[in-house]
Amino acid sequence: MIDGVAMPGPSERTIKGIVLTIACALVILPFVGIVSTSLATPEQVTEAGGFVLLPTGIDLSAYRMIFAGGVVTQALWISVIVTAVGTALSLALTTTLGWALSRRGAFGVRAMLLLVLISLLFSPGIIPSYLVVQRLGLLDSLWALIIPTSISAFNVVVVRAFFVQLPAEVIDAARIDGASEWQLFWRIGLPLSKPVLAVVGLFYGVGYWNAFFNALLYMSDASKWPLQLVLRTYVVDGAQLGSQDLGIDAAAMPPQTSLQMAILVVSVVPVLLVYPFLQRHFAKGMLTGAVKG
């Protein structure tokens, strides 16, 4: 016992360690199996019946095929463009709206904040959303994957809460020095909001990268499908990837399972690579935006 707090005994620590080890194994093993299947030789995949946990050899043919310039490569580029443009646009709109809503006493702030909060409780249905996109002429346009989800009310509330708790003395001193509202936002608000921007940017980026439902609704042209819709079509729905889809010779086709697992790995790896660089801002940004406001 330390300072009146009972410490867990050896048996309790052992049980916790075992439980955590099992939980980690349940999370890691499926991903290891996916990566292993995508890297295994065609013969081993065929012999194993489609799922390999420990490959005896490394074969990169599945990755070479999906990056050969076919439908998967095209979908990957579309996802990269949509994610990059969408995240930049969403951050710009969210930060400017959050800054405006944080300026207490400004004209129309209460009414606009009320609209933002109402949108947290009520969302448009599928048919109204489709009709709006159709009337705007965005069907079969990449903008249909960006504009309808460009602002999240939750993220606006988080960013606003962060801006509200900025030191009023700094803002007032800058105003006395003649700084305009735009200069306050650009030179004080944004530089001090890096943690919350990292978190909100991660939310937006992952959302755009993983989105497939908007593409399913608004994209009838398969050449404009993002990677996640291709993933859904060829992995979840079980559609067969043909040689014409990959732009390769039919004789060089690896097993369908290897192709599906390779597509799955490609769809997951970018998020895994980005998250470690933003993780240190994650807790600070979320707590700052959630505690005060």
TrEMBL record:
Q: Carries keyword ATP-binding?
A: no
* Coarse class of the protein's main subcellular location: membrane
- Segments forming domain ABC transmembrane type-1: 76-274
Q: Tell me what topology the record assigns in the membrane.
A: Multi-pass membrane protein
Q: Where is the protein situated, by its record's location annotation?
A: Cell membrane
Stated name of the protein = Carbohydrate ABC transporter permease
Q: Does the keyword Transmembrane helix apply?
A: yes
Question: Which keywords does this chain's UniProt record carry?
Answer: Cell membrane, Membrane, Transmembrane, Transmembrane helix, Transport
Matching PROSITE patterns: ABC_TM1
Q: Kindly list the residue ranges recorded as spanning the membrane.
A: 17-39, 76-101, 113-131, 143-163, 184-209, 259-278
Indicate the family of this protein.
Belongs to the binding-protein-dependent transport system permease family.
Pfam families from the xrefs?
BPD_transp_1
Report the coiled-coil segments: none
